[in-house]
Amino acid sequence: SLVVLFGATAGAYGAKLGSDERELILLVWQVVDLHSKKVGTLHKSLVKADNLDLSDQCREVSGLTPEGLGKAEPLDRVLQQFSQLVSSDLKVLGRSSYTLCSDGQLLIRQVLHPETSKKNFVLSDCFYSFYDLRKEFHTCYPSSAAVKDQTIKTMAEYLGLGTDEAEEDFGVWQVKTMVAIIFSMLSEGCNHVFSEPETVKHKYETGPWIKADFGLGFFFFFLCSSKSETVDSETVIRARGLPWQSSDQDIARFFKGLNIAKGGVALCLNSQGRRNGEALVRFVNSEQRDLALERHKHHMGSRYIEVYKATGEEFLKIAGGTSNEVAQFLSKENQVIIRMRGLPFTATQEDVLGFLGPECPVTGGKEGLLFVKYPDGRPTGDAFVLFSCEEYAQNALKKHKEILGKRYIELFRSTAAEVQQVVLNRYMSTPLIPTLPTPIIPVIPPPYTIATGSIRDCVRLRGLPYTAGIDDILEFMGDATGDIKPHGVHMVLNQQGRPSGDAFIQMKSADKAFMVAQKCHKKMMKDRYVEVFQCSGEEMNFVLMGGTLNRSGLSPPPCKLPCLSPPAYAAFQTAAVIPAEAAALYQPQALLPTTRTPQASAAAPPTVTYYPAQAAQLYMNYTAYYPSPPVSPTTVGYIAAPPGAVAAAATATHTPILPQPGALVRMQGLPYNTGMKEILSFFQGYQYAPDDYNGLIQLSDQARSVLQAPKEWVCL
């Protein structure tokens, strides 16, 4: 038997059903016995929605009113009545089992499953299997229109069924016509058989999306082969704006009703191994992906989630492959995964098991622990732990920030996708957590092209909240984020390295910049309105280099030394000389010392930071560079000095050279009245080389005498 089902929401109708996240307000159904070609009673039930504000299209098409819906039953009651009435009709027809049949995929996948998931009640099993009448019709009549172009009306017209939609109530005509279409398909000329129903997955299947069934000796071959695997780009989406604590199960719940491939949720992590609010999701086919795109700006809690197309290459880059070690760790089904962060580097499996205690036993004991390590085998301080049930996991989470050794340990919920991505980093050249932080002042970023010229293809954001980050700006831009050039978001920082409230964004064209300025000007961000102006690349460069842009026009930048900036900024051609103090303070070898053998260090030439002539501009504002998307800060890089510059610097008397074994620390947040004596007192007990500081800092005789006074030092 089939149960022919039709429904409508308070919003969009037809091909956009469910795309606006509106609630169900109508269900109409009828039982059809395929063998005897008999039908049961036709039932129509109104559904009381939480929000009774009907769209104009809904009012026009359905004829329903908020007053009438206010007297209806809520969805959970209506679904209970549905089950009872269907069972009763089946008994009358002498049948016991049935499968739903709907006009397309949208009612089941895009309306019923998402809404019941948000309202936290469970759909019966009958809603996880159904026949798509459009697909069945096209199979029976191959010469008919394509499936995506089919409607109840076009199918009826193809068969020559003379039905008048105006004669029946909304929903009743649709179900009666669907029943007539089904009987035509069962006629002797067609003898159509309903044999392969559509299915909806009950739950998201976690685990590695590529299995490794071989030993560790073949691991590197596996890495190469898994990276060369192809993923159909028509099955992948990027979800952006996720709460940072979202798991793969939360993301699967957001896409409830759609079939995600096994291990198809890959959470994106930043350089510190933490989630950045994005995920790549792989669906079983392109049809499911297209339905997922219709959930753009649907809500997860109070946040709306942006959904965009992505490529198979992007998914492979994030999901990667998995090692035999990870595959074995994740092979245990129905486990709750907890991530531990901040473990002492000397922590052993016994230490971790002892920390967790008997109240939260680990699945398989030591086999339920997975330590994350750097490529050279050093521990990162992270580990993943398996628990057999939610109760044990909750007990473990209660130990968040308790002490192990001399360190407090952070515990978070985790996912199989996160395990794959984090642990895979141990085999990559880049460690999970950088050994040194990025310098606060950008010295010379990678050579990303900054626009110049008079074309007004940029916009300036003024009056940003000081707490605003790159995510806030992209959310503020809305749909226009897709028109931003790669690496086109520039947040301007003040001389203290803090947000100035300004940002510049390079758009793909002047028309796009104009549209953004018109749409977003004086739009609210948090509790402030933000001004958005169209400007040119030349004007942007003036401001980034320290000038001002206001109603009076452009004002040239003052002659200051806020920072060094990329070589692409060439609006001012004034020659500049980097003072010795500045050159010495930003030695790349001081910030990023390299490992050297004793033999090599003895003969190594002095190393200097080389600033090309076109990069020696000393008037720029501080600027933070972000690629867009993704929204993680660009790593600061350095330009290698040519041999001639090294030789010249070695013989020059005015440019001090920091010795190779030395290292610098930067102190931030000092009181403004701090003197040399207070700084030396702060570092009392640590060894330093006074002679080197004589060359780095222009000292008075009094300060030099303080530095050179005999003290007791502890050598570290």
TrEMBL record:
InterPro entries registered for this protein in UniProt: ESRP, Nucleotide-bd_a/b_plait_sf, RBD_domain_sf, RNaseH-like_sf, RNaseH_sf, RRM_dom
Sequence similarity: Belongs to the ESRP family.
Gene Ontology biological-process entries: mRNA processing; RNA splicing
Main location: nucleus
Family annotation (SUPFAM superfamilies): Ribonuclease H-like, RNA-binding domain, RBD
Name of the protein in question: Epithelial splicing regulatory protein 2
Gene3D superfamilies reported in the protein's UniProt record: 3.30.70.330, Ribonuclease H-like superfamily/Ribonuclease H
Gene Ontology cellular component annotations, sorted alphabetically: nucleus
Annotated localization: Nucleus
Keyword NAD on entry: no
Keywords: mRNA processing, mRNA splicing, Nucleus, Repeat, RNA-binding
GO molecular function, one term: RNA binding
Residues covered by the RRM domain: 336-416
